């Protein structure tokens, strides 16, 4: 028992020494209000998931939205909370993990819907993933602008299929599942995070 406790303490200590990032995804209702938030905290060493959070926002979710069917209400009754409570819990949780950087696919959308998170650095995975200058998996037959950006077909679903080779992959449109998939895209790009810091930053804390 003592050996097990010591091992757990060492793992916790080592975990605290690892640089971590967060990947976030939101789903919105018919009024363009956030109705769910999914977040994963991952290691910058190998992009493995260290922790995850998922909240369904009330009363916003009751209005319904395009992806209401993915909310998984029955399994997440304890995670149905008001927006201010969810925001407070997530920010405290991120600070506990010493996270300073948030990544998202099409991050401007999520950042616009979560202005309370402006105290973090924000980076857009899509800006880098959709550019041939950085994403070497983009084939020559896909049309790009002169700056290397794809003209079309760079959403989460086609990008995941391109990078993974899994042609049958379908985006879940559940905040937590999508955050995990977006982390996978980040990992599959196999790029140093400094690339994102140089080319896809959309918010610097004041």
Label this structure with key terms.
single chain; 206 residues; alpha/beta; Nucleotidyltransferase, domain 5; seven-stranded mixed beta sheet; 8 helices; globular; disordered N terminus
Q: Summary?
A:
With 206 residues, the protein is of the alpha/beta class.
Structure description:
α6 crosses α7. The termini are far apart. This protein has a seven-stranded mixed sheet with strand order 4-3-2-1-5-6-7. Helix content is 37%, strand content 20%. The chain is an alpha/beta fold and 206 residues long. Mean pLDDT is 93; it is low at 1-13.
Question: Which secondary structure elements does this structure contain, and how are they paired or packed?
Answer:
Blueprint: H1 2-17, E1 20-28, E2 34-43, E3 49-57, H2 60-63, E4 80-81, H3 83-96, E5 101-104, H4 107-113, E6 121-124, H5 125-129, H6 156-164, H7 175-189, H8 193-199, E7 201-203
Parallel strand pairs: 1-5, 3-4, 5-6
Antiparallel strand pairs: 1-2, 2-3, 6-7
């Amino acid at each position: 028992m003592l050996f097990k406790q010591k091992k757990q303490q060492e793992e916790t200590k080592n975990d605290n020494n690892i640089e971590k990032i967060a990947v976030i995804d939101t789903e919105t209702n018919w009024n363009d209000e956030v109705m769910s938030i999914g977040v994963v905290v991952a290691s910058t060493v190998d992009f493995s998931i260290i922790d995850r959070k998922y909240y369904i926002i009330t009363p916003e979710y009751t209005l319904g939205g395009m992806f209401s069917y993915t909310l998984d209400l029955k399994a997440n009754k304890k995670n149905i909370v008001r927006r201010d409570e969810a925001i407070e819990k997530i920010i405290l949780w991120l600070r506990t993990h010493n996270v300073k950087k948030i990544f998202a696919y099409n991050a401007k959308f999520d950042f616009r819907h979560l202005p309370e998170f402006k105290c973090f650095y924000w980076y857009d995975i899509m800006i880098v993933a959709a550019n041939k200058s950085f994403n070497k998996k983009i084939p020559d037959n896909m049309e790009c602008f002169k700056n290397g950006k794809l003209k079309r077909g760079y959403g989460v679903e086609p990008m995941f299929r391109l990078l993974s080779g899994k042609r049958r992959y379908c985006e879940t449109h559940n905040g937590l599942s999508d955050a995990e998939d977006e982390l996978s895209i980040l990992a599959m790009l196999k790029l140093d995070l400094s690339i994102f810091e140089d080319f896809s930053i959309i918010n610097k804390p004041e």
